[in-house]
Amino acid sequence: MQETGYISRRVDRLRQRLASMDRHKWIKFVFDVLIFIFMALVTVAILYPLLFVLTTSFKDYSEFLKFPFKIMFTHPENYATAWIKGRFSVYFLNSVFVAVCAVGGQMIMTALAAFTIGRLEFKGANVLLFVMLSTMFLTGEITSIPMFILIRELGFYDTIMALIFPAAFGAPGMGALLASNYVKNIPKEIHEAAVLDGASIPQTFWYLDFPLMRPILTLVAVMCFNGIWSDFMWPLVALPTNRSAWTMPLGLITFQSENNAQYGILCAGLVILTLPIVVFYSFFSKYFIEGVAAGAVKG
Predict the structure, then answer these.
(1) Which of 61, 89, 147, 272 has the largest count of CB atoms under 10 Å?
(2) Distance of CA 171 to CAs 92, 104, 174, 177, Å?
(3) How many domains does one find in the chain?
(4) How much of the chain is in helix, strand and coil states, percent to nearest 5?
(5) Is 118 among the domain residues?
(6) 283 and 145: one domain?
């Protein structure tokens, strides 16, 4: 009888433990479902404006008024109209040219700053890094007046160089911090072997450190491209009359002020403006994530 009572008590405890485990699993399941529903709602809230712009870009004015939320693709010629009538072809090529020059210049500036601070390790390197980081606290509104005076004195005012020069040769800022930390994590034995083989400092930078900095430089390229491609204020200040040098944001806003009711063509221009950013990030997303992880490790 005692053994039977002991076994029954053990069975009851086991049942209670199993019931407790099932209850915890059920709570976890409900919690996961609620998290999934919440994330789905957030995703819909983020993606729906993009879908609305995309579908509106294929509608004319009457269709937009009658069916503003209906998904339809009846007027693909809106893109051709925006490309030709809105001169978006010129603005798009200007944006591509400025972005390529700016990204290339920023990658070189960031690589040089990272190599100088992270590898040469001279006296005052941290002070130089602090000065570069302090430029992040200066907004475009603060620097626009001195930059305007500089480009005017250089003869770049109202030319496309007024957009390329500040973007390509500006202070690296956060990119210098991430890249310098990345360079510090490169084993010193590699550089010592290069020196023993007779490599100079420029050769060490170009053939050794620069290729190894590819992930972090891709991160810099994505951030720079996003900022330059979407910039509106500085082109508005630097290019008041030279419409042949305008970029996509400036051209799109001007076209909107001149054609308020042509929502389909305006949304087609927005799609043309947004698509390169999506494609650029999608293509380099792998290196972007690697760059964030690599640059965040302190050496």
Answers:
(1) 272
(2) 26, 14, 9, 11
(3) 2
(4) 80, 0, 20
(5) yes
(6) yes
